Amino acid sequence: MAVTSFGRILWWGNVRALSVRDRAQFAARHGFDALNIAPADVVALLHAGETLDSIRAMAEDVGVSFTYLDPVVSWLPDWAPGQTAADFVPFLEAGLGRELEFAHGLGIDRMLTITCFPSGRYHMEEVAEHLSIFAQRMAPEGITCVLEAMPMWGLKTFAEVDALRRQAGQPNIRLLFDTWHYIRGGRDDSLLASIPPGMIDHVQIADGSLQCPPGISLFEDCLQRRCVPGAGEMPLTEVLSALKENGHLISVGPEVFSASLDAMTADEIAETLMPAFDAILPKDIRKGAA
Fold this sequence. Notes:
GO terms for molecular function: isomerase activity. It comes from Roseobacter insulae. Residues 25-265 form the Xylose isomerase-like TIM barrel domain. This is Sugar phosphate isomerase/epimerase. The chain is of the alpha/beta class and 290 residues long. It has a single domain, classed as Divalent-metal-dependent TIM barrel enzymes (TIM Barrel, Alpha-Beta Barrel). The protein has helices at residues 20-29, 39-47, 52-60, 89-93, 99-106, 124-138, 158-168, 179-186, 218-224, 236-245, 259-262, 266-280; strands at 9-10, 34-37, 65-72, 110-113, 144-148, 173-178, 200-205, 252-254. It has an 8-stranded parallel sheet. The radius of gyration is 18 Å and the shape is globular.
């Protein structure tokens, strides 16, 4: 299946306090090819009087594209997270059942099919069956389903989502690699050599502490306390080198969920995020590299 390739993607987590239009302008100004969008943002814009065409134009008018409808949960019948993330449910369920409409209307060919159910709710065989059915339904629509490990939920490690990909057995399933989730979930660089180049669709980069601070849930730590690359304790250079060595460092983008960034203007976010992001990348894939 042909999939549009984007070298640099801006993830909404870095700029979630900005409007979608301002996020698109940020992406264009700072060398990103594309930005992702959440169904909740699409729903809010439609309620405010926008159309899918006018939302799509917010990106295209400044020379970038939308990619990754994120998150998509409807492929599992009992997808809801546990009590620690109960406040997040309205965000997750926004646009439920309209994902394909949104993807086609915005020119998006990827869905981030997340596994936000609590540990123990499903056996791997059940999850794989549901994912396989969904991926088969999405394939004729030109949609790739992308999996991401999230240590606070059902599939905690990158090894587990890779196993899910293989067990579901559909050619339009790929993987997303998030450095924060990978290190917090259980780092295993040897696994990277076993994954075919191209199977990791994108690498998200964020820093943070090596362990969750006392008195804070892993979910809160993930969504409020990440750091820009180089400002935390994570061995990002080692992990990125392992990815590059195995042919996986093709598409990159920062994903720094941070209450500190939320309080900044677009210019302040850029001053804080962009030098750190560019500095952590291997020289040959930095912005402007030949």
